[in-house]
Fold each of these.
Amino acid sequence: MEGIRDEVKSVRKPGWAINPIFVNRWSPRAMTGEELPDEELMPLFEAARWAPSSFNEQPWRFIIAKRNTPDFGRFLQLLTPGNQAWCSNAAVLLLIVSKKTLSRNDAPNRVHDFDAGSAWMSMALEGTGRGLVVHGMGGFDRERARTEIKVPDDYDVEAMVAIGRRKPDSQLTPEEKANQRISDRRPVEESVFKGSFGKNIRA
Ligand SMILES: Cc1cc2nc3c(=O)[nH]c(=O)nc-3n(C[C@H](O)[C@H](O)[C@H](O)COP(=O)(O)O)c2cc1C
């Protein structure tokens, strides 16, 4: 198993021993601008495929646009200007949508977003292991995305993702260096409560 990568070590110090993949994953913005062959791209969706979901509904759907195809420009223009700037070097842009109703009885699926989130994380972790950038984005025009990408009414628009080959640190421009940073997290005690919301787990 790969250990904790040097690049994250100074910022990310897990309080408990965990699989290093969790701290090795982060969201760089600098990508090489190369295409990705299906041999590197499709395993990300294969990883997502095995995510858990309520009733095994698998509510996630991924609509992808590969660079150097007409779709890429259509997807790129949905993003905020800030995201467009760095995403122009992505190999693939994708939209995640999630089915709001259960296929078994058309009842509302109250956890479809939660399940789509699991699938996205699987994708991000698989990409991290492969040295790829897998960067989630909420900064895009949701209504335009729905129309442009022909998302059916019973699906929610969730998020967009940029995937690409990571640009090596030695090749980063000063702007690219300034535009990405490895982040820390609040302590686990601020997210995990004992018995009632807000109650300290050590109390
Ligand atoms: C659903 C979602 C939406 C996000 N939206 C954006 C975005 O629009 N633009 C951007 O540059 N980063 C975006 N991010 C990246 C987050 O800022 C980043 O995940 C967070 O700061 C934690 O950093 P890390 O992923 O490097 O650990 C988004 C991440 C997620 C999961």
Amino acid sequence: MSTNSKLYLFVIAFLIAIFAFYNYLVYSSNGYVAVEKLSPMAVKGQQLFQNNRCWSCHQLYGLGGYLGPDLTNVYSDEDKGPLYFKAFLNSGVKSMPKFNFSEEEKDVLVEYMKQVDETGIYPNYDAEIEATGWVKLKYQNEE
Ligand code: HEC
């Protein structure tokens, strides 16, 4: 084997080793995925949210339709909150349709909003990129 091809093999082996090590770091770290589980009540709220297509006009964590505002932090917003949220549901405003939810349905929707609110801030500008490539966001419940 010539010196050149030995060097070539060495460089390839070195790159493979770095690649393997990097993958090990990325896939063995827990990352920062929020592993929050919704309570049974909030799951009912989530189902109502989906079945009534709130998604088509509203976003949670910035994702969804863009006709209406993002609802991620409606619950903890000082000027809004649960009563404000409920008020919108059966009244209908502008292009938001009027729904006929029972008190119980409104309560589970509020519970869903509460738990969404606890897991995220939107828009979230408070992020840092870690050496492993993960993006660390600040969560509401870390404050
Ligand atoms: C067809 C589109 C559409 C659908 C479907 C819809 N909305 Fe809306 N919603 C809107 C629009 C547009 C506004 C803004 C109205 C305004 O500001 O006057 C709004 C406003 C709101 C607000 C007030 C938000 C804020 O920050 O002021 C809440 C809460 C809300 N909607 C909840 C819901 C929920 C819950 C559902 C599903 C049950 C839903 N909406 C379905 C269009 C929609």
